[in-house]
Amino acid sequence: MRRREFITLLCGAATTWPLGALAQQPERMRRIGVLMALSANDPEAQAFVAAFLQGLQELGWSVGRNAIVDIRWSAGTVYEYSMSGKWLQLLKEIAPGVTRVAVLRDPSLAAGPGQFAAIQSVAPSLGVELRPVDVRDGSEIERAITAFAQSPNSGLIVTGSALAVFHRDLIITLAARHRFGVLV
Questions:
Q1: Structure pTM?
Q2: Residue 71 CA to its chain's centroid (Å)
Q3: CA–CA gap between residue 143 and residue 163 (Å, rounded)
Q4: In this structure, what are the phi and psi dihedrals at residue 16, rounded to the nearest 5 degrees?
Q5: Which CATH class is domain 81-183?
Q6: What one-character DSSP code corresponds to residue 34?
Q7: How far apart are the C-alpha atoms of 30 and 62, rounded to whole Å?
Q8: Where are the domains of the chain?
Q9: CA separation for the pair 6, 91 (Å, rounded)
């Protein structure tokens, strides 16, 4: 009888042992990479990150328990140069009367000349005269947009940059005030 009890006990332990071992193993960590095209101190960027993390949590992912989230802030352009030419085409679609377009850009970005060249390559076929406008701060943005608005049939393209994101409210206000066709 003792032998039978021993074998039963041993078999019972052998069948439950793997389950116990599995229950004690930590959950597998997943690494999630996020590239934000905004600056880390931008309130809108922080709202995006918070919403993303909340969505992950609702799906059962918890930072530190089963997920590691690496966030990188590019705070600059994430566009391919060829896409820049599409901006002018889109602007002409939403504001067909536009014949002059200021291209607002941050001169400190290396992507600026490439973006402008792509826009410039489609301008003749659309009958648009382009003017590159290099700006470094809010006062330059305001002066440039106000000066450019003096001519009729004007439009505005704002290339991607941290400067444009930081001053987006100013740019939108000025564009609305001067009734620009705008593509940001």
A1: 0.58
A2: 12
A3: 15
A4: -90, -20
A5: alpha beta
A6: E
A7: 10
A8: 2-73, 81-183
A9: 83
